[in-house]
Fold Phosphatase/phosphohexomutase.
Amino acid sequence: MKPKFAVLFDNDGVVLNTEPQYDLFWNEQGKIFHPELPGFASYLKGFSLEKTLEVYFKDNEEDRITIVKRLYEFEDNMKFDYLPGAIELFQVLYEHNIPMALVTSSNDIKMEKILRVHPEFKKYFKAIVTSDKVTKTKPSPECYLFGARELGVDPSNCFVFEDSLAGIEAGKSAGCFVIGLATTNSREKIEPFADTVIKDLSEASYSFLIDLHQ
């Protein structure tokens, strides 16, 4: 039987509590490489590493190499803790046979690190879409279109959980119903762009999605 709908999750700031750690890393690098942009991390929300390098480090190959090396070393020591409600929502959707995909701006290298900590991702997600699987990353809709296609569900029957403006734009452009999470940005900042906004995944449930889908 065809599923009623599918659910596509962004990762950082939606499923895993990594954004505060990345803020520390990128703000520190910003002081070194882009002192003219205070709060450098805020410019990168939803960006893949490739897009970050393309936009902010395109003119200096040595800087690009340095940033990548530092980032990978930093990620080796990151904590990949769940945000509230994530694993509980995965389990209940899994029990109701709702197909799920993880759609992230992270590359395969980082995803391998996460899967070592959270092998259960392979149980819950029928597809994991990384930046290495698409030609254009968020805010392009390509990643969410890819995810919906992998699940065999039309984008119009897909829910997207996102925390970044770039990710919200990607989900909306793909034709999905986008639920914004006020985990990284304030509710006021994302409300004009998302279809609805919740605090975090603890406010989502199977019945919540059923009501939205009707």
Summary: The chain has two domains: 6-17+80-213, 19-76. DSSP finds ten helices and six strands in the chain. Residues 61-76 form the longest helix (16 residues). The chain has a mean pLDDT of 96.
